[in-house]
Amino acid sequence: xxxxxxxxxxxxxxWPSGVGKTTVxxxxxxxxxxxxxxxxxxxxxxxxxxxxDGQHYYFLSRSEFQSRIESWEMIEYALVHGNxxxxxxxxxxxxxxxxxxxxxxxxxxxxxHLKPVLEHRTYRVQTFFLLPPSIEELRNRLSMRGTEKAxxxxxxxxxxxxxxxEQDFYDYKIINTTLxxxxxxxxxxxxxx
Length: 193
Known about the structure:
Layout: H1 3-7, E1 9-14, H2 21-32, E2 36-38, E3 42-43, E4 58-59, H3 62-70, E5 74-80, E6 83-88, H4 89-97, E7 101-105, H5 108-120, E8 124-131, H6 135-144, H7 150-164, E9 172-175, H8 179-190
Parallel strand pairs: 1-7, 1-8, 2-7, 3-4, 8-9
Antiparallel strand pairs: 3-6, 5-6
C-alpha cells in the first residue's frame, strides 16, 4: 500500500430509499468532479443494456473475480444473489492518483461492514448519512415517483425506516431539505482541511 493510500480520506455516503440518492450524487459530482470520484464496483453479474464497463461497473467473469480475491486485489467483496460485488485496490489507487477523494455510495448495512475493513487497512474514512426532513416528506418523495404500487410503497418506507436506525454509526448526519443546502453541507465537510 502506498503512502498516499494510507493517508487519504475515503468517503462513504449512504441514505435510505427516497432521500434523493441519484439527484444528490449527480449534483455533487457535477460541482466537484475535479475533487471527488465514485468508486466503480467490480461485479460478476451480466452487463445490462446501456451499461458501460468501467463506468457503471467493472464486469468480470466469476473465475476472474475469484482470481482477484485469491491474489488479495479486493478491498472487500460479497456474494449477492449469486453474483460477486466488490471494490479493488487498483480502483482506489486510480482515483487517489488523480488527486481526488474516493467516494463509496453504499446502503447503511454495507457501510457498517466497509468502514472497519478500510480502517483496518489504515485508511482514514469519513461517513455521511443523508436523512429526509421528516417521515412524511419521505413518504411524499417515494409516492411522487409514481413507480410503486401502494403495498410496495409501504414496504420501501418500512425498509427506509429500518435503514435510518443505522444513522448513529455515521460520522455526519445531513438532513436533505433542499438540494443546494445539502450540497453546501457535504462540500463544507468534505473539502475543509
